[in-house]
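Good morning,

Both structures are done.
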Amino acid sequence: MVTINFADLHCDTITKMFEHDADIYQNFCQVDIKKLSTFDSVIQFFAIWLDKKYLAKPFDNTVEFIKYYTKQIEKYKTYFTNMKFFLAIEGGEALENNLDNLKKFHDMGVILLTLTWNYENDLAGGVKSQCGLKKFGGEVVELMDELNMIIDVSHASEKTFWDVYKLSKNSIVASHSNCRKICDNARNLDDEQILAIKEKNGLIGLNLYSDFISDGVANLNDIAKHTDHLLNLIGEENICLGCDFDGADRYPSPIKNVADMKNVYNLFKKLYGKQITEKIFYDNVKHFLTARKFL
């Protein structure tokens, strides 16, 4: 029997679960415990993203999401022998321009913050804006360094990216971003950004949203094109998965949910061999989290 370990830096499952009062063990979403249990060892980041309807009270609503998630995790804690789940927030709106709120989220178990979504907020500019890191955003970055929280530059504008790169003393990640050289989308990283993340000993999570993979209908070979580019540019130590399950509406066939990632594993194993595939699928994230004292 083939052993496949799986680590993923980004899914949006919590939001969908919360809105439908779904169960984390088995649900209609693309990620749940039952699907993840088809892998031998699992590291899964769950991101809390706020739709516009939640932005009137972003801190309070994020707390409600966290409470819901925590209750679900407690309910099924016996399943976590071979699974490690980590909590993230996607979008600094949740902080409500208050550093104390970052500390509160840290105390609630949040270890990663994606500074922006697509738009400008109190911290910085997203990909659909031109501005960079603001005063409050700089304070957030410095406090995250102090708290050993992971700074995520996916969705950030180019100016925000480079401002964070210069300011942060820690490794940074792009939790779910691909290569602009392969697919010219603003959400993807250019080669300079990719090299900068490697320089900081960070991670780049391959995103499975079709629009970030290919200009046309994406397939598994298109995912491999991004992987090829990363391997040729920075080697195999800083590449991982940031699948974006439950956060997009189009994925390459035959990927319907997280259990289907075995198809990607088999393709990568054929193309790159077992050692590199296992690094991308699990080992690089495990090494990163161990180095940062999360494992």
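Second structure follows.
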Amino acid sequence: MTKIASIDVGLKRIGVAICLAREIVTPQNAILRKNRNQAARDVDSFLKEWEIDTLVVGIPKGGESEDEMTRRIEHFVSLLEFDGLKEYQDEYGSSVEAKQMMQGVTRQKKDGKVDSMAAKIILERWLCKIPRQMQQ
């Protein structure tokens, strides 16, 4: 079984989710981002701890700031020491969807729960589009 993680890279927090068993995606505690080098180290530690094989990175498609955000996210990913497979998945609307899903469950605190729920959505979208044999 391939161990897969996803990240939703933000300026203040990085949402994180994992898939260790077929089609079950679990949001994890978000990584607080003080600066990009610290955040990259923390993401690397997370990926090593869970022995992740594939990293799915949310990237915005469409919208005014697509090029700028894509450049920033790709730069952040280049700072990672992770040598597994890196995949990019459209994250468009994942944060809005995550906020809607969590309405009433949690007050909109800045604790990263919404960010990690967005990472969960990104990973679920990616899993839906890849062949089932790759998930095993």
